[in-house]
Specification:
The protein has nine helices and no strands. The protein has 158 residues and is mainly alpha-helical.
């Protein structure tokens, strides 16, 4: 989702230069509409009026549609993803096209989620248990040697 959110934000930033009504609306497009506050929902409805014909709204709809992928049953997931990919690559929004191509490069990994239900967060957590610590535990301040004591007269004192 991060890649697609970044693409939506990139479209918004580019369009904001010609459309001042998009100023200060970043989080309206990045938040999930089911969990957003009523104020942001109202702002979203005002900006998504069809008469405005905003590129950001098109990118946002592509994002919402991709989010629906995770509710699809296993047997329909690939068909849904193919339709989404076609829509995103034909949207004439370069950041969304780039995001769709990134999803295409990871196609099997995205579809594998439906059978394993393991996401990257779980894998990172497991990986952190397996790795040794990157640095030695630190000494308490009272036990740490002082810099001027280490090299006093060429002798090391600890």
């Amino acid at each position: 989702m991060k890649i697609i959110n970044d693409a939506v934000d990139h479209v918004r930033r580019e369009e904001k230069k010609q459309r001042p009504e998009l100023k200060h609306s970043r989080y309206v497009w990045l938040k999930n509409p089911r969990t957003s506050k009523p104020v942001k929902a109202t702002c979203s409805k005002k900006l998504s009026v069809k008469g405005l014909n905003l590129k950001t709204v098109r990118a946002y709809h592509i994002r919402l549609n991709f989010q629906e992928l995770w509710q699809q049953p296993l047997d329909q997931a690939e068909v849904f993803l193919k339709k989404w990919y076609f829509w995103a690559t034909h949207s004439r929004l370069q950041p969304m096209i780039d995001a769709a191509r990134t999803i295409k490069r990871h196609w099997q990994g995205v579809l594998r989620w439906f059978s394993s239900q393991i996401n990257n967060g779980i894998l990172e957590g497991i990986n952190s248990w397996c790795k040794p610590p990157k640095h030695a535990p630190r000494l308490p301040l009272s036990a740490q040697p002082h810099h001027h004591d280490l090299f006093a007269g060429g002798k090391t004192q600890i």
